[in-house]
Amino acid sequence: MTDYRMHFADFGETAYLNCAYQGVFPLTAVARSHEAIDLKSHPERMDPAEYFGLPERVRTHLAAIVGSDESEIALTSGATQGVGVLASGLLLGPGDEVIVAADNFPANLFTWLHMRRKGVQVRLLKNGESPLRVEDVAEAFTPRTKILALDWVNYSTGRRIDLAAMGELAHARGALFVVDGTQGVGALELNVHDLPVDVLAVAAYKWLLGPYGTGFVYVREEVLNRLDLKVVNWQSVEGADDFDALPVDDIQLAQGARIFDVPETANFLNLSGMEASLDFVRGVGARAVTEHCMELLDHAAEGLLSCGHTVTNDDRSNLPSTLLCFRSQTQAATDKLYEQLKAHHVEVSLRHHRIRVSPYLYNNKEDIDRLLAIAS
Known about the structure:
The protein is an alpha/beta fold. The protein is about 35% helix and about 15% strand. It has two domains: about 5-15 and about 285-375, Aspartate Aminotransferase, domain 1 (Alpha-Beta Complex), CATH 3.90.1150.10; about 30-285, Type I PLP-dependent aspartate aminotransferase-like (Major domain) (Aspartate Aminotransferase, domain 2, 3-Layer(aba) Sandwich), CATH 3.40.640.
């Protein structure tokens, strides 16, 4: 197993197994962030061209990571804004229907529920403890269904859906397929042009190792011209980079998804670190992340099952993810174990009465053994 720990800060006595909560800056991103802070302390050193150059370099990285064109990427503050690009831009109204999983992360749930105020019918998929099956989703469709909105990797179970199967179902029924990819992008290989995904919204502070408050949305080119733009970000107007020739009585929007960029797009305090993190993520490659994490999680699952715990996503060979979620015999026992792990400096998350383990390249087998020693 390759040792990547030299690229990250020393965690000391902590075994940090919580990338699904907060991804960790590589040291290169730490350095770039300090440089950005220095620029804010000395604005006279800032290069005005970076207000447009930095966002475009970040956009280039993101397009390469998900396999899209740069023109299909908008920079956002997180997954919520990305979902909102479609939810507000598609002009849904009374009688239109949206299908959404009840256990989606709130970024891909609350916006859709809020659209009920406009008469939009929201059909909730409630699969309980079972995996979400294509046939169950198919039963929820009607001729008025406009959108199927699902999470690629579920944040509380670690289960991963089949994007191809779900997207093909949506398209066959005349609906758009909207995906929150936050818990997969950066950790799992992806090429959106090979998949029936129309919109992919991602928060970048987890598996992309970016700062909190960063993200992006991929919007398939054919969908872009169907979306209404509510508010114009001045930096997305043609000629905005030339203060001496700014348009006055008429504007022309830039081409592509960048018209949906978050305002103050060139937030260099965030994007500087994000650029360095994305450079690292692309350098190691998603396959290396998947293989490293799966080796650790297979070891964890074997040990947890032997101790009598229940692993939620035990079929990881078919659709692997880099999250492992498990429960003890009772809810009280699960909660107690979580507190014990925290007390022994093993950092994990507790989500819906499941303990979530999400390692990254800085972790090794010894970190998993520490968890298993406490869980046994």
